[in-house]
Amino acid sequence: MGVNRIADIYARPGQVLSIEFWPPKTERGEENLFQEIKRLTTLNPAYCSMTYGAGGSTRDKTVELVCRIEREFGIDMMCHLTVVDQSRAEVMGVLDRLREGGVRNIIALGGDPAPGAEWAPHPEGYAYAHELVTEAIKDFSVAVAGFPEVHPRAESRESDLRFLKAKVDAGACAVITQLFFDNNDFYRFVEDARRIGIDVPIVPGMMPIRSAAQIQRIAKLCGARIPSALNEQLESLVGDDEAAVRFGIDYTTEQCQQLLAFGVPGFHFYALNKADAVLEIHRRLYGS
C-alpha cells in the first residue's frame, strides 16, 4: 500500500518521476492500462495520478481506479479532484472514499465543464480551487495546477498568478504545470511565480507526441501553443503515427534535458495510458 505524501516526496533529494493516466471507458481499456502500468513500475515512479473527466464525468471510475492501483501495485496515487459541477457534499464524499482507500494525495483543480457548457461554480459547491485546497489539506497532501501560458479563463497573466499564489497560500505543496512545447514559457512562469513568493516545487508536465492530429487537438483543448517550427514538423507527420511517436520521443527528450539543466525537481508525464514513450525518454535521460 502506498503511504507517501507528495509533500514528503518532493522534500527528498533527487529527481521525482510521476506519471498520469486517464480512466478507460471499457473493460478492455482497463486491462490494457494495467498492462502498461506493470511496464512503468520498472521505473519506480514516486507517484502516479488519475484524471477526472470534464464536469466530474468519470468521478466514480476515477476513484475506483485510484484506490485499486494503490492497493494492487503499492504505488502512491494522486487523484484529480475538481470544483466544477460538484456540491461540497459530493466533494466530501469523494474525499471520504479516497481516505478509506488509503489514498493520501490529490490535485485540486477548477476543472473543465461538461462539453458545451459554460464554466460556473456549483450553487452548493466551491467557487475556487483554493477553497478545495483549504478543505482537503486537513487529511491530504495537495498539489495544484499551473499554467505556463496562462489559464484559458484567466483575465490576465497577473490574475492567473494571483490565483496560483492563493492556492499555495491555502496549503498546496506542489505546482504541476499544464503541458507546453516551448521551454521559455516554463522558465518565464517559474520566474514570475518565484517573484511573487511562490516557493513550492514547480513540476513541468510533459506530454510525448503520439500523433500529429492528437497532439494538435489536445493542445487546442487546453490552450497550449504549438511553436511554428514544431507545427510544421507535425504537418509533415500527419497520417504516420509511428514516425510521430519517434519524433515525439526526440522532441520531449530534448525538452527534458534542457529542463534538467534549468534545475526542475522532476517530471510529470502525461502518458496517455501508454508506456513506450515514457520508458524510452527515461532511458535517454537517466540511462535506465
Task: Write a structural description.
- By secondary structure, the protein is an alpha/beta fold.
- The protein has one domain: Alpha-Beta Barrel (TIM Barrel), CATH 3.20.20.220.
- Helix content is 46%, strand content 15%.
- The chain contains eleven helices and eight strands.
- It has an eight-stranded parallel beta barrel, surrounded by five helices.
- Strand 5 (141-146), helix 6 (157-169) and strand 6 form a beta-alpha-beta unit.
- Helix 5 (129-136) packs parallel to helix 6 and helix 10 runs parallel beside helix 11.
- The radius of gyration is 18 Å and the shape is globular.
- The model has no long low-confidence stretch (mean pLDDT 92).
Q: How is this fold's topology laid out?
A:
Layout: H1 6-9, E1 16-21, H2 27-40, E2 47-50, H3 59-73, E3 77-82, H4 88-100, E4 105-109, H5 129-136, E5 141-146, H6 157-169, E6 174-179, H7 183-195, E7 202-206, H8 212-222, H9 228-236, H10 241-262, E8 266-270, H11 276-286
Parallel strand pairs: 1-2, 1-8, 2-3, 3-4, 4-5, 5-6, 6-7, 7-8
Question: Would you kindly provide a brief summary of this structure?
Answer:
With 288 residues, the chain is of the alpha/beta class. It has helices at 6-9, 27-40, 59-73, 88-100, 129-136, 157-169, 183-195, 212-222, 228-236, 241-262, 276-286; strands spanning 16-21, 47-50, 77-82, 105-109, 141-146, 174-179, 202-206, 266-270.
